[in-house]
């Protein structure tokens, strides 16, 4: 079964939309940040962006989760900012990306509005600089974060259903 990867920069709604999508589908949800080694979380918490070397082991761990969930399906979040990161995730098996995309001011406001999250708003611009949006030849959908989460979930399920035989 297809595993859905909910992608996008910090604050784009991956956790909110991903967990709602998993609930609607009755499949397991896994949180991207749970796959980061503690050093990565510490680095971001102290205001330093991750680089490719920091991200490879994390991406491979998520690809392993994708592989383990091919039989049941599942939803996993992952910022998956660059196309070559998504190539690593695709090695895990059948994946479909839901890219949550939206304006910087809304992202900053949403990051600012949540409490107790390790990710500083100061890292948003580095996230946007790294972002290579989902391309037309990559399986998936780009959704607008100005839509409510339930509408994004509806649209994702409709698009995904169109692709199933
Ligand atoms: N479509 C939406 N409309 C309105 N508010 C939203 C939407 N999606 C998420 N939010 C709110 O925006 C904030 C950020 O969302 P969330 O934590 O799910 O993002 P995230 O991409 O998982 O972030 P991170 O990767 O930094 O952990 C939360 O307070 C959430 O309630
Ligand atoms: O690749 C990265 O830079 C990271 O995965 C980040 O995107 C954060 O962990 C996440 O968004 C939490 O705010």
TrEMBL record:
Its EC number is 2.7.1.12. The keyword Cell membrane does not apply. SUPFAM superfamilies: P-loop containing nucleoside triphosphate hydrolases. Keywords: ATP-binding, Kinase, Nucleotide-binding, Transferase. InterPro entries: P-loop_NTPase, Shikimate/glucono_kinase, Therm_gnt_kin. It catalyses: D-gluconate + ATP = 6-phospho-D-gluconate + ADP + H(+). Pathway: Carbohydrate acid metabolism. Belongs to the gluconokinase GntK/GntV family. This is Gluconokinase. It comes from Amycolatopsis tucumanensis.
């Amino acid at each position: 079964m297809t595993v859905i990867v909910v992608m996008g920069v910090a604050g784009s709604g991956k956790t909110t939309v991903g967990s709602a999508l998993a609930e609607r589908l009755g499949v397991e949800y896994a949180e991207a940040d749970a796959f980061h080694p503690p050093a990565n979380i510490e680095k971001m918490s102290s205001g330093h962006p991750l680089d490719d070397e920091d991200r490879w082991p994390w991406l491979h761990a998520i690809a392993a989760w994708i592989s383990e969930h091919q039989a049941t399906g599942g939803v996993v979040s992952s910022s998956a900012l660059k196309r070559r990161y998504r190539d690593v995730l695709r090695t895990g098996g059948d994946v479909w990306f839901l890219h949550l995309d939206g304006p910087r001011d809304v992202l900053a406001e949403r990051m600012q509005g949540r409490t107790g999250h390790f990710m500083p708003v100061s890292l948003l611009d580095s996230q946007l600089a790294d972002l290579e949006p989902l391309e037309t030849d990559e399986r998936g959908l780009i959704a607008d974060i100005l839509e409510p989460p339930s509408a994004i979930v509806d649209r994702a399920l409709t698009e995904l259903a169109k692709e199933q035989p």
